Amino acid sequence: xxxxxxxxxxxxIRSRIALREALLEIMTKKSFNTISITEIVELxxxxxxxxxxNYESKEALLDDIVNNLIQDLIQSFRAPYEKVEIFRVNEIxxxxxxxxxxxxxxxxxxxxxxxSDWLPELQKKMFVSLKHIALEDIIFPxxxxxxxxxxxxxxxxxxxxxxxxxxxxxxxxxxxxxxLR
Length: 181
What we know:
DNA-binding, DNA binding, HTH_TetR, 2 domains, Homeodomain-like_sf, TetR_C_Firmicutes, mainly alpha
């Protein structure tokens, strides 16, 4: 018999999805700071009790959205190398292409967050998460270069391009970034 103790109830999943979608929809019209929990639950067609059984605040709800985005970002970063036994530093550009694809898939959310008060938090979480994964996953040659500095340099370049792309309203297609490898 399967263990159900770690499985989340489908009703909880449905309510969390509805609350996330409601917040994002309201953020298309209003600043995050002016949004109330009442507005979120009314649009999601739930009550405040449901909201508070899932989140302690609207900030926790937005943080959940950002954390899900970061998890997908990490998965996108690792995707080109998940079947490779050794991940070498000179292969980093291929991961950046997958990051662009991730951003493209989530363009609406990134655009909303770009225009919100949460942009610095998003940038920080993206950077810290990718730095941790890169330093954990990458095998660096013994070439005298400080690996942490090299990783920071590359991540700032990739994320700088990504945020420029978002700020420009996705002026270029994701394919344009394939040629930057």
